[in-house]
Design a protein that fits this description.
Radius of gyration: 26 Å
CATH topology: TIM Barrel
Strand content: 5-15%
CATH superfamily: Divalent-metal-dependent TIM barrel enzymes
Shape: globular
CATH class: Alpha Beta
Helix content: 40-55%
Mean pLDDT: 86
């Protein structure tokens, strides 16, 4: 074969081969689009801010049915009004725990492009009289089983944590309390649901060190703190307690109230200082708003959102 014939034959083969392959794309490869994080990603709204609007916890001053809220509507209302998609539900505001209701609630979260971060288990079984710390094993075990049910509910709704308070702790002997939380943390672990304790009640608010003892004794990533800016008896305890608790914070803290005086100061405590403590501790969870200072919860929540966006 002559050289010219060989080259022609080779080129013909290459063309024929290429004809059997799909054409190469003419456009450059698309780059992944990364959304710039917004401070609103760190903001959460709790149903507690609107407790006066729910039937079970309503304020008698609200006489108009149009002002009332139901939990099924809450995700879309908050998304539309505030562009906030992190939510915290209080157990009292559930109209039902039936599977159909929970599925509808989950569907509404998805429709609003929102997520449930934490479920606050405010129930009679965890009252200050005993609950998870009660000396009576039957009372204590009943509280544990009830909390397990709420862990299951949190799991179904996609929440990352539940807040279950200890009840009447004995600061001189925390062994019963610790045992209860060991059982709950073990139950929550395979479900990826952490169990949180807030600085509430006579012991938890005044002695945050007692909560730290529980966290250390139980150990692991599925027990932790829910630091609340406002739930301290005085500012000295707040400034001592918040840094301690934020070391064990998992998913959420409570940005409680924001009632500013004429000088743009929080009369009860320094809100900005509390946020800074959370940042200094490396807290990467969300700041859930519990607004309870005024009649107009909608405007009050907006004021806290504005301040958090400025500070975070």
């Amino acid at each position: 074969m002559k050289r010219r014939e060989f080259i022609s034959s080779l080129l013909a083969g290459v063309v024929a081969s290429a004809a059997g392959r799909p054409a190469s794309p003419q456009h450059p490869r698309r780059r992944a689009v990364h959304r710039v994080p917004s401070p609103l990603d760190r903001v959460c709204v709790s149903t507690r801010s609107f407790k006066s609007y729910f039937d079970v916890t309503q304020d008698s001053a609200l006489k108009s049915a149009s002002e009332r809220l139901v939990l099924l509507d809450f995700p879309q209302i908050i998304a539309d009004r505030y562009k906030v998609h992190n939510l915290e539900f209080v157990a009292q505001h559930f109209a039902s725990l039936e599977p159909a209701y929970l599925q509808a609630l989950k569907s509404n979260l998805v429709a609003a492009q929102s997520r449930l971060i934490n479920l606050a288990v405010d129930i009679e079984e965890l009252g200050a009289g005993g609950g998870l710390s009660d000396p009576d094993a039957a009372v204590r075990n009943a509280a544990i089983e009830t909390c397990k049910n709420w862990i299951d509910t949190a799991r179904q709704l996609g929440a990352r944590s539940v807040r279950c308070d200890p009840g009447g702790m004995n600061p001189d002997d925390l062994s019963l309390t610790i045992d209860s939380y060991r059982k709950l943390a073990a139950y929550g672990r395979p479900k990826s649901v952490a169990v949180l304790i807030e600085n509430r009640g006579d012991i938890g608010a005044a002695h945050p060190e007692a909560l730290v003892q529980i966290f250390r004794a139980v150990g692991g990533a599925f027990i932790g703190a829910l630091p609340d800016f406002g739930d301290f008896p005085d500012n000295a305890t707040r400034l001592r307690g918040l840094p301690l608790l934020f070391r064990y914070a998992r998913t959420v803290c409570h940005a409680r109230d924001l009632k500013l005086d004429s000088g743009d100061r929080q009369p009860g405590f320094d809100f900005q200082q509390c946020v800074q403590i959370s940042k200094d501790a490396g807290f990467r969870g969300v700041h859930s708003i519990e607004y309870e200072s005024g009649v107009d919860a909608y405007a009050g929540v907006q004021s806290v959102i504005d301040e958090l966006v400025r500070l975070l």
